[in-house]
Amino acid sequence: MPSASSNLIASAELISQGAEAKVYKAHIHSDTVPILVKHRFRKGYRHPTLDASLTRSRVAGEARALLKCLRAGVNVPGIRMVDATEGILGIEWIEGMCVRKLLPGGAEAETELSDADAVPFTGVDALMGLIGTEIAKMHLAGIIHGDLTTSNMILESSQSPRLVLIDFGLSYHSGLVEDKAVDLYVLERAFASTHPDSEPMFSSVLKAYEVRMGKHWASVSKRLDDVRLRGRKRSMVG
Amino acid sequence: METFTNPHFPRNLSVAHVALFAPVNNAKDLRSRIIKAATLDGDEGEQERQAVNFAFIDARLITSRLHLQTAIYQAVMAEAQGALRTKKVHSEIVWILNPTNNITEALRRYGVSDTTRSLLVVRIDGPDLPAERAKKDMDAIISGETVPLDKLQDITEWNTVKKHYKLGQDTAILEAKGDSAREKVLINEIVISSVASKSIAS
Asked: What residue ranges do the domains of chain A occupy?
């Protein structure tokens, strides 16, 4: 007999697919409030035992990071259901637009927003401030996102400007200055490769990050300079 | 009473009948009846166990309809997968609602106690059990009144929920200090998310 979660997937609408997971829009308790379902499907190229345990631990890891962020007051989607055995994580549906599409250069040609639509509710500078603040709150909680890009941030459209961080699939727990600096560096690179003239935008992000980090900022700032010189990966020499 | 149907679950677990009793006048008797039912032998025991075959949840600790629905969803899923941590799907709901792994503690906090004044009563079953029948079975053992589920918002004791989940020192809650509407939204979200991820909490 098919499992509850496979029935759920079968009734859901596929939104996107990556190498690691498929993402669906689905309904579990009501037809009016959707949830987002992330299904880490079976990988045929892995031994079944290894596949099962990796899938389970990744679903668990992502859910734990989200919960930790919620408790720390970071804007992230709430968790709605977990079926670790089947590799399924159901989270709150966030209605809004991803930041990549709100900034110049990020939208695909046909969906390019007119100037009037761009960055609703707030100006670019304010939006960058929201990003910096959310990242700082997350880092202060000891969570490293691991894949900070403008695609993984949603400006929620329902209420007064709320920036929501999504996709904690590569996140991990760490208090190290190095990890925070690399997290920021990854975002800086993402900005540079997606959006033209990104320097002033990214410096607004850092400005807000600095304010929120307080006394922790100095060491991260210093390390970020180091990381910029050598790149994301540390030298293995020595 | 309300009935939630989930077509994704196996037929015999696809329906949840939920009623909110407030006030409840016989909590003490109900509690001893549930305990006694567990120890009776033979046909009489079977009958008694059938009579109290519900999840009894102290409504003061439930923050929203979605909070309860999430616990029901995860409990039924565990039952369908043969992965219950407690003996029955109904006790599983109560266990999932409590933030720790201790079953006795879960029943003491979230189940019926002698002083319980309001109860959420849940019956998981198939579509063959009509709602009226489920309600009649509930009324047979509970002396009190049923009110719409939306009345929950007047019953929730937010400070007790906060205590059980140890939310007092969390940044999210500290930042919302003084804004009780916002604090409730945050508590509700953290509690729902905790319930949803109970199966992987270590």
From this structure: 4-92, 96-230
